[in-house]
Amino acid sequence: MSPIFGTDGIRGEAGRFITPALARQVGYWCGSTLAEEGPVLIGQDSRLSGEMITSALKAGLTAAGKEVWIIGLCPTPAIPFLIKKFKASGGLMVSASHNPPADNGIKIFGEDGCKISSKQQNQIEQCLKKNHLFNSASPALTNSGQSHQRSELMVHYVESILDSSNNINLKGLPIVLDLCWGSATACSAKVFEALGASVTVINGHPDGERINVNCGSTHLDQLKKAVLTNNAEMGFAFDGDADRMLAVDKCGRVLDGDHLLYLWGTVLTEKNQLKDKRLVATVMSNLGFEQSWNQMGGILERTAVGDQNVHAAMVSFDAGLGGEQSGHILSSINGLCGDGLLSAVQVATICNELNLSLTEWLDKSFKPFPQKLINVKISNQHKNNSWQKSQPFQKAIHKAKKEMGDEGRVLIRESGTEPLLRVMVESKDPFTVNSLSNHLAILADEHLNAA
Fold it and tell me: Binning pLDDT at 50, 70 and 90, where does residue 8 land?
């Protein structure tokens, strides 16, 4: 049987992989695994399958004797914040993040507000497999907890985001928000309006059929157009559960997670608030970012992809800022929890504090190496890892690395959330990037999807 947990909880097609039966039993074993005292919180994004999965999780948790607080529509980072504030025993977020509407998932947090450890994941997974849950068997149900609707608790999360602005008033600053039809619709516009910004919203109400569809942080064309059309100073796009954010300046230029880390890190360094000038990023971060940061006397630690890996490295190095190129930024401001709304507020208020436009601030950033990422769909999932065993493919990778030397990189990795092989090439030469990435992607497709 394939692993149930991926790189960020449990994720897959709703109704086919994430079924009510699975969710009910995940809820039960979470209730048995999480701390004994305190309620378990459940939040969700706007997907149509969210109510079904939340109800099933609630049934399992209450069957395990846990008290359940239903938060409802909310950004993922609201759950760990509320866990810590109200001393809950844990929390679950029903979301498939940036995945398409048909998918859903379950992210699990412990009493410390952090995602549960691999040991706890393994414990839950073994319980699921031992009970043959995919054959509809159920654990014995002996207890009965109570559930309560607690959507009013979101006001505390909103207040925490406002507090992070250090009382800076954005004074009518024209800002566009792409709320992606998802979790960001719960409170993001309200936050920026409270800070005094003049807000234009696109994709701004919860719609489970359109979440992430050609919008949000993975599809920035709508945001770019809206920023230019409305003569806005900046725009922010969130993903489905609002733990990621990418920004656009008034010229339509994109600030990805690497730019956010570099610029925010520079400000913290100038204030002597970044220990050892250390940032934590992943293997996906741009080589131009790393070289520029090192030239400033900074240290860039790289981890495997995934916010849990970034979090672990930040704790190990006592780092105050880290994240992923995708816009998932972790900061000491909120206890190293990835929060797209917090990141957006920081970008806007730092520009205000520096008396710079986002365009002027971006001009102070590094020059990224051209980078191209191609997703190769894996049709035969039983062939996972076969790219590592394919001699022609490995030979092509070795040749590409040798050709670029220190002036470029090749990174091949399997997605932990989707049946994809990610082929990434970066180099100072755009032609090299394009030709090598296309060549490797074609080879990967031939060898992974052969009949």
Answer: confident
